[in-house]
Design a protein that fits this description.
The structure is a single chain. The chain has helices at residues 13-26, 39-46, 50-62, 83-101, 106-117, 132-143, 170-179, 194-197, 217-229, 261-264, 281-290, and strands at residues 66-69, 73-76, 124-128, 149-153, 164-168, 186-188, 210-214, 237-241, 256-259, 273-275. It is an alpha/beta fold and 294 residues long. The chain has three domains: 13-116, Arc Repressor Mutant, subunit A (Orthogonal Bundle); 121-191 and 282-290; 194-275. Strand 3, helix 6 and strand 4 form a beta-alpha-beta unit. Helix 1 (13-26) crosses helix 3. The protein is elongated and about 90 Å long.
């Protein structure tokens, strides 16, 4: 049996052991009748104090999940067989098995359930984004909407940091999840489409030019592709790299400029601007619930 023990966690090691053994029992990773490792063996394997392991086992005994067989050791009790309890246990077991197929450890499932049942309120959002221009844009969007500290970095460093939500774009999340602890809450920043951003905008005429201005090549490419997909002629869409000198002079003939939240601040007055936000509204609302105002 494998345990994930974090000694600098807000959750005591004793409670970590109790919860992980219980999850293993409910998911039948540890079947009824299975003998658990001895106190000394488990303590030695994970470099824990024997009293900590003994206290965790005692809690599980008191709760009826384990039974002590004199001279033999501790064994897993059969799961409850009542209609109500059995149904709930089967639901939890199915949940854990489905989550495991998606690559989620039981500890991560427990973390998410705890946040849903007893929201603790996160105090910091860390954006992980390797591309500097996109990193600045994502930070500007979230900082304008959330009442907590929003920081951005090229790599995730959550050592010694508590009550932090780590967020990243869908293209980065798979790699990110492999590099940080499953105990860290990670949220994928679902994208807001150009089509949705322009839903209240009148369709421009055939002879007009629309400029897409941003320091991020990803935004310029994605916005151009979506504009063409919703019916604009490719020759009517002009990409402008806002990182180049004198870029503002190139938008003079544009009927409208689509710009990210950072670039939009630098558009000359009098020029029609449509602000394009990267992050979907649903994600912003989710983060607001996780990070309430203090």
């Amino acid at each position: 049996m494998r345990f994930w023990i974090t000694k600098n966690s807000e959750l005591p090691v004793r409670e970590q052991l109790v919860r992980q053994v219980l999850l293993a029992i409910l998911s039948e990773d540890i079947p009824p009748g299975h003998r658990l490792p001895s106190v000394r063996a488990l303590a030695r394997r994970h470099s824990l104090h024997p009293n900590t392991v003994s206290a965790a086992y005692h809690d599980l005994l008191e709760q009826g999940w384990l039974e002590l067989r004199r001279g033999s050791g501790l064994y897993v009790c059969p799961l409850p067989v009542s209609a109500a309890d059995g149904s709930l246990d089967r639901m939890l077991a199915a949940l854990l098995q489905a989550a495991r197929l998606q690559g989620h450890e039981p500890a991560e499932v427990l973390q998410r359930l705890e946040q849903m049942v007893r929201p603790q309120g996160y105090q910091r959002v860390l954006i992980v984004e390797p591309e500097p221009a996109m990193r600045e844009i994502l930070k500007a969007e979230l900082a304008a909407k959330l009442p907590v500290l929003v920081e951005a970095a090229a790599q995730a460093d959550v050592s010694g940091v508590t009550r932090t939500v780590v967020v990243a774009l869908p293209t980065r999340m798979a790699v990110l999840r492999r590099t940080i602890s499953p105990k860290v809450l990670c949220i994928t920043l679902r994208l807001r489409s150009v089509q949705h951003s322009l839903e209240a905008q009148k369709h421009p005429g055939k002879a007009v030019v629309i400029s897409v201005a941003s320091r991020s090549a990803e935004i310029r490419y994605g916005a151009r592709a979506m504009l063409i997909a919703v019916g604009l002629h490719p020759d009517a869409v002009c990409e402008i790299d806002a990182a180049t000198d004198g870029w503002q002079s190139r938008i003079g003939s544009s009927a409208m400029v689509i710009a990210d939240v950072v670039t939009a601040r630098e558009i000359p007055s009098g020029c029609p601007v449509k602000e394009f936000r990267v992050i979907a509204d649903s994600v912003v609302e989710q983060l607001k619930q996780l990070c309430p105002a203090v």
